[in-house]
Design goal:
alpha/beta; Threonylcarbamoyl-AMP synthase; single chain; about 25% helix; DHBP_synth_RibB-like_a/b_dom; SUA5_domain; nine-stranded mixed sheet; Sua5-like_dom
């Protein structure tokens, strides 16, 4: 798939599959990710199995824009301005979830969820066609230090557990920077591809 001008037919086909319950591997502005439809319990379980995740893991709602993000998390004015200044970009923000977020996605104690707005043409095209956030997690396999970066390699290794691999070339190995706003103050919980200067 062309990284700057993705084929409309391929995007539409991928979104139709997502709506039918498919689990996809797709590129972002930081690294490849696993994604499924927001309410897909099967998709969540498959991601947990592939990545060997426990219930405390924060899934990410990958959103097309700020208006969409605002439906799923609570933001005060200060946090709104800070996040607005850094999106779209290579950040994931942990925030208190609204009732729109399926319960199985919430951190069991904090009732929070991760959200992000990526700066990647293919991801944005997917989200525009889908019309809702994509439930996602970094494509980092258990006992490996770096995410998978090549579409052919992902297909070769995960063809039996994912339904679609969208290959638009190498998109890097560094996952997003994760900023936790659940206490009201910014806390950098993972240093990644996004600059942390404004949060420290």
């Amino acid at each position: 798939m062309h990284p700057d001008n993705p084929q409309r037919r391929s995007i539409t086909s991928a979104v139709d599959s997502i709506r039918s319950g498919a689990l996809i591997a797709y590129p972002t502005d930081s690294c490849y990710a696993l994604g499924c439809q927001l309410g897909s319990r099967d998709g969540i379980n498959r991601i947990r199995t592939i990545r060997d995740l426990d219930e405390r893991h924060h899934f990410t709602l990958v959103c097309q824009n700020f208006a969409q993000l605002g439906q799923f998390v609570h933001l005060d004015n200060d946090v709104f301005r800070t996040i607005k200044a850094t999106t779209p970009g290579r950040y994931t923000f942990i925030l208190p979830a609204t009732r729109e977020v399926p319960r199985q996605l919430l951190h069991p104690k904090k009732k929070t969820v991760g959200v992000r707005i990526p700066d990647h043409t293919v991801t944005q095209a997917l989200l525009a066609e889908l019309g809702e956030p994509l439930l996602s997690s970094t494509l980092l396999l258990p006992d490996e230090d770096e995410p998978l970066t090549q579409g052919w390699d992902i297909k070769e290794r995960l063809d039996h557990v994912v339904d679609i691999v969208l290959d638009s070339g190498d998109c890097g190995t560094e996952p997003t920077t994760v900023i936790d706003f659940s206490s009201g103050e910014a806390e950098v919980v993972r240093h990644g591809a996004g600059d942390t200067t404004r949060f420290e």
